[in-house]
Amino acid sequence: MKKLIKSISDVIDSHENEIRENIKASDSSLSFYKNSIHKIDNVIVAMFRDHKNRFLMVFSNREDGIIAEFSGEQIGDSDTIARKCSLDEHNAKVLRKHFPWTAPVSLRDRKTTIGCGDRLGLAAAGHIAAVKNFEVTPVLAQQSIRELDLTGRTYRQVVDDATFMVFQCGYKDGYGADGDHLKTIEDIDVALAADMPMITLDLSEVMNAAAGDWEQDKIDKAYAKLPPAARKRIEADYAGRKFSFGKSIIDFDAPTARRCAVMYLDALDFADKVHRHLVSRRGAKFDLEISIDETTSPTLPAHHLFIARELVCREVEFTSLAPRFIGEFQKAIDYIGDPEEFDRQFRVHADIARNNGDYKVSIHSGSDKFTVYPTIGEMTGMRLHVKTAGTSWLEAVTVIAENDPVLYRVMHKCALDNFNKMLALYHITADITKIPDVDELCDEDLPGLMEMAEARQLLHITYGPILNDRTIRPLFFEAMHKFEKEYLERLKVHFTKHLTLLGVPPKKNK
Fold first, then answer.
1. What does the DSSP 8-state code read for residue 137?
2. Is 484 labeled as catalytic in the residue annotation?
3. Phi, psi of 114, rounded to the nearest 5 degrees
4. Which end of the chain offers a freer environment for a tag, N or C, measured as fewer CB atoms within 10 Å?
5. 80, 124, 165, 333 from 510: Cα distances, Å
6. Using CA of residue 215, residue 221, residue 222, residue 226, what is the dihedral sign?
């Protein structure tokens, strides 16, 4: 460490680009992230790692000032002072104060966005390595309450982990943070308190989805209970009308209008309430996504149109909307269904979005849906948001399978033991009896399991039990630290494939 401090002393008055080229860690167990070296008021802040951890190092030629704001262990007694700082909540807050580009921002003005779920707090560097080459903006911090419960993290930790990764990469193009699938204002407030500008509002528990299957006479009876003014407006705005958007035509008969009113009006009133709450908390600096995808039946085009028009009528500022599309968007695997029928129906959804507020179509469980990516990108004109989550976790699992087969086998068996329990939380149709016995596979065959749909889904939905296993957890994170470069490279390749197949244009000025 003394040699490192001496190296810093020699260059502390230089421009940060020169510092990046000229400092040397010297100690073979210590290394730094070149793009993390930043200078402010003659203070150098950089991200380092040793054989166990990543941490911040802050260097200054004075004890007061910015260095004093960071908490950590002070090292050395030379003219240059060094402070070794852990990656904790306090130091993340100081980073965001002095390097504002490390804080998440609203992305309502960004055309193409991708949600990069990071259940480990380790994936953002790989996400950034991919997205920086494309005309796309990442949502690097994205978690649902369910994911928080299963991983033992908090929204504050999710945002802080993204802050440190953005600083580590020197990424200054902006990123989002999404409180995903939130259903109550109480949960939304937790995400807002962690400085998450994006809220995905899940309307599944306030909409009357069951009414989609009711007989018409039951719909009519429920509709008759609505206030007269509401019924009058619904009939005037929808019943018997024909809506035309480009090549898409939607005939809205009176029974459909009544059914939509019964199914969605209460949910849309709640969306209005949430919107007003977001405005009161963040002004215009938020992104509201409306999620109606958590249903058993696909969202009919007429229903999508009703929801969009009603949101506009209520002056709800929503950035994106997630319908439930035809076919199966199951976790961790490609699209299940007829691609041609998907194309036909998706075109209508894209036309509705383009002509009723020009919001982004959001694709939930969007990772690895390679078959339909070209359609999604082309028909939305790249005005879209794609959500991924488990695919980054599976890339980590693949890294373990490639580099630590003993640990992988333990994780795989833990997944098998917990599979049935996790089916209560995730909808998949994998037949795990097709998965070979890992004890009968050679080490070199283990990574191939992550190319098998059944094994991918097995490992995808059991991340919680695996990460909460007291024996597995420390070994897993130790391995992920050791194989950090391998993980980054896998994520870069994997997300480059996603963005390329979607048709996201390459960035012209990298």
1. E
2. no
3. -135, 125
4. C
5. 35, 18, 19, 31
6. positive
Candidates 152, 155, 250, 247; CA nearest to 198 is 155
Cα–Cα distance for residue pair 349/307, rounded to 1 Å: 12
- Amino acid identity of residue 122, one-letter, is L
362 SS3 class: strand
Residues of the chain falling short of pLDDT 50: none
**Cα separation, 61 vs 78, whole angstroms:** 9
Model pLDDT for residues 234-284, shown as the tens digit of each residue: 999 999 999 999 889 999 999 999 999 999 999 999 999 999 999 999 999
Instruction: Specify the 3-state DSSP secondary structure of 38.
Output: strand
Alpha-helical runs (H) found in 172-299 = 185-193, 216-224, 228-237, 254-282
Helix, strand, coil percentages for the chain (3-state, nearest 5): 50, 15, 35
Q: Are 341 and 354 in contact (CB under 8 A)?
A: no
Q: Residues 160, 195, 202, 289: which is the catalytic one?
A: 289
Domains of the chain: 2-86 (no CATH), 101-390 (3.20.20.70)
Give residue for tokens 């007003």.
276
Work out the percent of the chain whose per-residue pLDDT is above 90.
90
The residues with which 362 forms a beta bridge, in sequence order, are 385
Q: Are 359 and 336 in contact (CB under 8 A)?
A: no
β-bridge pairing 81-85 and 112-116: unpaired
Adjacent-strand bridge partners of 137 = 113
pLDDT of amino acid 12: 85
- Structural tokens at position 506: 């390459």
Is there a contact between 303 and 264 (Cβ–Cβ < 8 Å)? yes
| Rounded Cα gap, residues 143 and 130, in angstroms | 20
Q: Give the residue among 338, 409, 331, 414 at the shortest CA–CA distance from 375.
A: 338
What are the residues facing 320 on neighbouring strands?
A: 289, 360
Alpha carbons 121 and 165: distance in angstroms, whole number: 8
Q: Which of 160, 161, 178, 180 is catalytic?
A: 180
Is residue 180 part of the annotated active site? The answer reads yes
pLDDT at residue number 6: 80
- DSSP E strands in 307-359: the ranges are 320-322
Q: What pLDDT is attached to residue 4? A: 82
Q: Are 497 and 105 in contact, with CB atoms under 8 Å apart?
A: no
Residue-level pLDDT at 18: 87
Which of 125, 134, 132, 130 lies closest to 173 in space, CA to CA? 132
